[in-house]
Structure formats: C-alpha cells, structure tokens
From TrEMBL:
Origin species: Candidatus Corynebacterium gallistercoris
Subcellular location: Cell membrane
MF annotations from Gene Ontology: transmembrane transporter activity
GO cellular component, one term: plasma membrane
Protein name in UniProt: Iron chelate uptake ABC transporter family permease subunit
Segments traversing the membrane: 21-41, 61-81, 93-112, 118-139, 148-170, 196-214, 234-259, 279-297, 304-325
Main localization, broad class: membrane
Keyword list, A-Z: Cell membrane, Membrane, Transmembrane, Transmembrane helix, Transport
Gene3D superfamilies: ABC transporter involved in vitamin B12 uptake, BtuC (1.10.3470.10)
Length: 331
C-alpha cells in the first residue's frame, strides 16, 4: 500500500526553495546598497545647505531612478530577444536595435529641432521596432550554420545604420549631439527630463504576463502553432516591447552597450532558461551592474566623470569574448 505521506521534495518545490529566496534577497540588498551609495556620491555635500538639498532632489534622485529603470529595461530587452531567437549572443547591442533608435532620434531632431522629449521618444521607438523586424527578417532568409552568425548579422546591420546616422549628422551639423546621445551617461538626467522612463514599469509587467508565451515562441514557429499560439503576433509583441524600452532608454540616457548581453547570460548560467523565474533576477542584476559601473565612472577620475557606457563597453566586450570561447569549447 503506497504511503500517504507527502513527498518532501515536491512540497519544497511547491513552497519554493528557501535558499534561492534568501539568495535573491541578499542580491537585492547588495543592489539597494549600491543605489543608496549612488545617491550620496558626488562632489557636493547634499546636506550642507539648502542648495545642496535642492540639488539632491533635482539631480541625484532623478539620476538614481533613471539608473534603476534603464538598467532593468536593457537587461530585460536582452532576455526577451535571446528567448525569441534562442541565441545567447543576441541583445539590443548585437541586433542593431540601439543604432536604429539613435537614427530615429536623429531624424526627429533634423525634421523638428525643437521637438519635445515625447516626440523624440516616438521616433526612437518607431525606428527601433523597424530595425528589429529587419533583423528578424534577415534571420529568416539566411542559413545559420552557427549561432555566432546571428550577432554578426546584427552588428553588421548596426554598423550600416550607424554610418547612415553619422553621415546625416555631418550633413546637418549634429555630429556633436549624436556623440552625446550615444555616450550613455547619466550626467544630463534631471527632474522633468527622466520621467518617461516610468514606461519601463509597464513593459516589465507586460513581459512578465507574457513570459510563458515568449518561452514557447522561442521553441520555434511550429511548436508555438501546435499549442495554439499565434507565433507572428508574439514576435511582433516581443519586438514592440523591446523597441519601446530601448527607445525610451536611448532618448533619456543614451547607449548602454552589452548590458542586455551580459546579464541574461550570467543569470541563465546559474538558473537555467525559464523567462518568468529569471526576469526578477535579470532586472536586479542589471540594476546592480549599471549602479556599480556608474559609481566607478563617477569616482575613477573624480572630480571629473566618464560616461558609464565606457565601463559597460569594456566589461561587455570581455564577457562577449568569454561567451564565444565557451561556446566553441562546448562544441
């Protein structure tokens, strides 16, 4: 007669692994400490006088909130793109999505120099969506003998778009503005300018709600169709969410290179490939990496500050090379 005693392993699975929960809380605590440090690191004493308190609310708090939202957004974008393409080398940096967003921003500024931040955001989002769909169209028509071909295609498309942007910027005397937009820095973030980043919260919620569908879509069109899902609709939805988040971050902060490549790979190496359970981890780790890089960028040559994209680019390039070597060593 089988025992009616419940299985401890199954019960633990249903209730959640306490060790994993404590690990997440520990990671969250470390990230919160970095965020608090970001609030108080700077060349002026925020509590010295009324001016310092005013600067704290006008620049420090908006800068830190922008750091949190943009870090979560770009890490999430990489996770969604990697799930839809089933390729660990895909991110907004290696698909050309960021370059397309920059082109959209530039076109709006050329056509309407006094455009509001909302108008610029719409232009960046629209071109991000178009560029990502162009990338997916290339993938459909190219025979992929290696997973390394996918980021090469994206980087190639991004280089072409970047060249077009540079040419247009030279012709319209906006090359300096283009360089500032792509610098990827939080120095120009202030109250009244960063608020559009709150859209990222809605995008994160939408990704979490659709996480299981995106996971199935990542298995291929045939698999998604066999379980009753509309593959093309999911592809458009995922691309739209990525374009929305990338466009908003590009307009407010600029380019944050390789963040969407580093974070999802770090998390999936430890936790596997489940999008729903990985999403909180990806957001927390993304925020932590951006916060750490930003603190380093603000202190390494203090009182001057280097763009956070410089630090992220160095870290991301090292991780990218490591992933390529790891892929080759595992066949």
């Amino acid at each position: 007669m089988p025992s009616k005693a419940s299985n401890p392993t199954a019960r633990a699975t249903r209730q959640g692994n306490p060790l994993k929960e404590w690990t997440f809380l520990l990671a969250l605590g470390v990230v919160c400490a970095l965020i608090v440090a970001s609030l108080f690191v700077g060349e002026y004493d925020v509590f010295a006088d009324e001016l310092g308190v005013g600067m704290f609310t006008i620049t420090r708090i908006p800068r830190t909130l922008a750091l949190v939202l943009s870090g979560a957004a770009m890490a999430m974008c990489g996770l969604v793109l990697q799930m839809l393409t089933q390729n660990r080398f895909v991110s907004p940096t290696t698909t050309g999505t960021t370059e397309w967003a920059g082109l959209g921003l530039l076109l709006v500024m050329i056509a309407w120099p006094e455009a509001s931040i909302m108008t610029r955001m719409i232009g960046a989002i629209a071109l991000s969506f178009v560029g990502t769909m162009v990338f997916f169209a290339f993938l459909r028509r190219v025979s992929l003998k290696s997973s390394l071909i996918v980021p090469i295609i994206g980087i190639m498309l991004g280089a072409v778009v970047s060249s077009i942007s540079t040419f247009l910027a030279l012709q319209t005397d906006k090359l300096q503005s283009l360089g500032i937009w792509f610098a990827g820095s939080f120095t120009s973030v202030y109250k009244g300018q960063y608020e559009v980043l709150w859209i990222v919260i809605a995008v994160l919620i939408a990704v979490f709600v659709c996480a299981d569908r995106f996971t199935v879509a990542g298995l291929g069109e045939d698999m998604a169709t066999s379980v009753g899902l509309n593959y093309q609709r999911l592809l458009f939805l995922g691309t739209g969410l990525v374009a929305l988040a990338t466009g908003v971050v590009t307009v407010v902060v600029g380019n944050l290179p390789f963040l969407g490549l580093i974070v999802p790979n770090m998390v999936s190496m430890i936790r596997g490939d489940d999008l729903r359970s990985n999403l909180p981890w990806v957001c927390v780790v993304g925020i932590g990496i951006v916060a750490a890089c930003d603190l380093l960028a603000r202190t390494i040559i203090s009182p001057f500050e280097i763009p956070v994209s410089v630090i992220l680019g160095l870290v991301g390039a090292v991780v990218f090379v490591y992933l390529i070597v790891r892929q080759r060593s595992h066949g």
